[in-house]
Amino acid sequence: MNLVQSLQETAGKKGDKTAYIFENQTVTYGELAGAVERFAGGLSKLGVKQGDHVALISGNSPYFIIGLYGAMRVGATVIPINPIYTSDEIQYILQNGDVKTVITLDLLLPMMQQFASLLPSVEHYIICPASPQFELPANEKMKPFT
Fold first, then answer.
1. Which CATH number does 3-142 carry?
2. 26 has which bridge partners?
3. pTM exceeds cut of 0.90
4. Model confidence at 136, in pLDDT bands (50, 70, 90)?
5. I want to staple 52 with a disulfide (CB 3.0 to 4.6 A). Which of 61, 77, 100, 105 is the partner?
């Protein structure tokens, strides 16, 4: 049994039990499994498939859990990157990791924009809001970040 199957099995048996608590919000295994399935479906619609490399730069957050399980659900290889690495370290990992999709926090968007042109293999950026006030600015520089 792999981790994705284990989550599905746990959600089936103990769907109403707490999977995690983040910032005073309790999420059950059923809710987590549903979020993972929806995210995996979204990745599939983007064309992410088995063997693709997905970078996960989200720190200790629900985005990490959902991103990890969702990417594994579609068969992608996850490259977790610590968001407190320097921009040079993150750029190096992304350039050498054959990354197709980057999942990152909105706080790191300016850094991603700095070296996006140096990452030709990256097709998609999935931006996760770290704060409820975040909105993507509507300008030409933002077009590749969807």
1. 3.40.50.980
2. 21
3. no
4. very low
5. 100
